[in-house]
Amino acid sequence: MFVLGFGAHPTTHEYKVVRLVYLTTYSSHFAPKVELFTQGTGLWRCIDSAAPPYCMVEFMWSQAFVNEAVHWVAFDPRVVDGFRNLILSFNMGTEAFSEMMLLPTLADQHPSCLSVKLFGESLAVFWSGLISAGFCCIWVMKEYGDAESWTKLFSINLPDVLDKALGFRKNGEVLLSTNMNWLLSYHPGTQKMTNTGIVGNSYSFNVDVFMATLKYLQSVFAHRRPSDP
After folding, report:
1. F-box associated beta-propeller type domain: from which residue to which, for each copy (predicted)?
2. Which of 17, 22, 60, 210 has its C-alpha lying 20 to 30 A from 229's C-alpha?
């Protein structure tokens, strides 16, 4: 089993991919093998920094890149009769792991019910209950790294409609996949839903942040025709 994280070096701006490979069944005795791919070299290399003994379920789990680090929701396999979830991060500059605590409300939930997203430049956690289908509660970390700053943003309660909350749009609306395989845009203030016209189940959708890089813009200008605006 493996988990991926995508980000960039804070000064060179080279893209990097970090891969955590679990070589055996989850156990407190086996930390994952950590490998890093760097755009400049085009090669994978092993990371010497010790990986913490936390686990993530599968490569389809969510990630968020902010403050020079990629973040995942992880859980501690050493906990018996319950769960201890947290935010695990890997800094693309220092190539070191760190962790941030969640509120007990989130830390005690089944880890597959949680996903980490970006809300502007802040970390957000989406919690969807295992039993209460059609429900999602969204929490935001107001001050990066401060576990006491987790704040409930709002809840979405759409029985028989909501399958999965996917992430935020630039206008603050939330993209949702539905039981009927539609992708909807939901306004948390008015609770109005707009159909995007895109069809697919929740496993086929992914929402992430996009921004044009200098290299991309240089490519656009280089291929622009003289008559183009």
Report:
1. 2-203
2. 210
Render pLDDT for 142-188 as a digit per residue (tens, 0 to 9). Answer: 999 999 999 999 999 998 889 889 999 989 999 999 989 999 999 99
The tens digit of pLDDT for each residue in 7-17 reads 999 988 899 99
Residues 123 and 172 in one domain: no
For the segment 110-120, the average pLDDT, to the nearest whole number, is: 89
φ, ψ (nearest 5 deg) of residue 149: -95, 5
Among residues 107, 127, 157, which one ends one of the domains?
A: 157
- Domain identity same for 119 and 36: yes
* pLDDT, tens digit (0-9, with 9 covering 90-100), for 195-221: 999 998 877 888 887 766 555 445 444
Range of the domain at 217: 163-224
Q: Give a yes or no: residue 229 inside a domain.
A: no
The reply to whether 106 and 196 lie within a common domain is no
Q: Which of 140, 85, 145, 91 is nearest to 113 (CA)?
A: 85
Strand intervals (E) in 112-161: 114-119, 122-127, 135-141, 150-157
Give the chain's domain count: 2
Tokens of 183: 């992708």
- 104 dihedral zone (left: phi>0; alpha: psi -120 to 50; beta): alpha
The maximal CA–CA distance of the chain, rounded, in angstroms, is 67
